[in-house]
Structure formats: structure tokens, C-alpha cells
Amino acid sequence: MTIELKPRVRKIIQRLKRAYPDAKCSLNHTNAFELLIATILSAQCTDARVNIVTQDLFRKYRRPEDYLQVPAKELERDIRTTGFFRNKTKSIQGTAKVLTEEFGGQVPETIEELLELPGVARKTANVVLGNAFGRPAGVVVDTHVTRLSHRLGLSAEKTAEKIEQDLIPIVPKKEWVMFPHLLIAHGRAICKARNPLCAECAIEKLCPSSSLKTGVLPGS
Ligand code: SF4
């Protein structure tokens, strides 16, 4: 299974790179710390909404200490529109505390250390390591990556962790960071959740779920 999937995945990557030459992390950030905060905020929220909130947030809070100098209520107000703002405030202030007390105010560069931060799960750690430090530690799996992995027949698993374990052996390591960006770009533009545009799809010939082959819209 894995052996036949690898060449197909390489072709999928090639074609998606041609279709989306500008694909990249869509959370605005200028450093690893900002990306860490933006990724915590992005849980259950669109990247577009996070980018609106972080425009002001990153002007007000520049270092981990800044998040510790305001009452939780104030930070909750500042991030309210991203949803789950009480939990996210706890995560951000908890993370800021650990960064300040244990890492000299710097974002650590290993997955083990990142996972010590409150509210930082494997997906967040992967996003930060891959996009801020250029260190692929895994494959980021979000809702788009989940949907497209299913449709493309790359994984039948349900949880992000298990899908990632299916993707790791078939996606070349040098593409671990870019692969999710390509799938997300394709998921937003063409392979949409409700109405995938298979007739316009750059990887239609490589996709077992294409409605042109099955006569049924994937996911319907
Ligand atoms: S052929 Fe259809 S289901 Fe397959 S990747 Fe393209 S848009 Fe998605």
C-alpha cells in the first residue's frame, strides 16, 4: 500500500505546487513567538479571523512578559472573537509564564520542549517548528488535510494523530511543512467540503474520489 502511494503523493505534490506556487502558512506572524500565539488562537477559528485579531494583539503584546502583565479578563476581551477565549487566555498566559521562567523568554526549538507548554499540542508544535524554524517534525493535520487525505485515499483514519502517522511514511520529509499548505490551499479553492469542483481539479487524475469517476460528489 505504502509503496504504491509514495509515487502518487509525489505527483500530487508536484501538481499542487504548480497550482499554488504561493502556498504558505496563512497565519500572519513575524517571529516564532507570534506564530505560537496565533496557532493557539486558531483552534476552532478561521485563520482569517485570527489574523484580524492578531493585527492589534501583536502591537499590544510583544514579549511573553507582556501577556503576564494584564489581568486575564483584559486578555480575554482582546481575543474574544476567536472563540473559546477563556481557555485560550489560560493557554496563552500559561505558555507565557513557562517561556519566561524556563526558556528565557524564547520559544524552544524541540518538539519535546514545545509540548511542555500549556495548551500546546502536537499540531501547534508542528506548525511552529516547521514554519518558524524550518524544522519538519511531523505533518500538520487540520480539517482540510483530514478531508483531502480521506478523499485522496491517503488515510482512512479519523483522528489527526493517526492521519499524521499515515502521512509521515508516504510524504517525503522535505515536504512535510509544505504538504499541508498545499492541501489547505486546494481545499479552500477547489476541493471544498460541500461542493468539490472535481472538473477543475489539478489532481483529478490522481484522485480515487473524483465525481468524474464515481458520479457522486465526494462527501455527499
Ligand atoms: S478530484 Fe474532486 S475530490 Fe478529488 S481532490 Fe479533486 S476536487 Fe477533491
Main features:
220 residues, mainly alpha
Report helical residue fraction.
Answer: 55-70%
Which ligands accompany this protein? iron/sulfur cluster
Number of helices: 12
Computed over alpha carbons, the radius of gyration is: 19 Å
Give the ordered list of helices and strands.
Answer: HHHHHHHHHHHH
- Average pLDDT across residues? 95
Q: pLDDT below 50 for ≥5 consecutive residues: which ranges?
A: none
Please tell me about this protein's structure.
The protein has 220 residues and is mainly alpha-helical. Helix content is 55%, strand content 0%. It contains 12 helices and no strands. Helix 1 packs across helix 11, helix 2 runs antiparallel to helix 8 and helix 5 packs across helix 6. The longest helix is centred in the N-terminal third of the chain and has 18 residues. It is elongated. The protein starts with a helix and ends in a 6-residue tail after the last helix. 39% of the residues are buried. The mean pLDDT is 95. The structure holds iron/sulfur cluster. The site of iron/sulfur cluster (SF4) has 14 residues, from loops.
Question: What is this entry, summarized?
Answer:
The chain is an all-alpha fold. It has helices at 2-19, 32-41, 47-60, 64-68, 72-79, 85-102, 111-114, 122-132, 143-151, 160-167, 178-189, 211-214.
Element layout with pairings:
Layout: H1 2-19, H2 32-41, H3 47-60, H4 64-68, H5 72-79, H6 85-102, H7 111-114, H8 122-132, H9 143-151, H10 160-167, H11 178-189, H12 211-214
Helix pairs in contact: 1-11, 2-8, 5-6, 9-11
Bound molecules: iron/sulfur cluster.
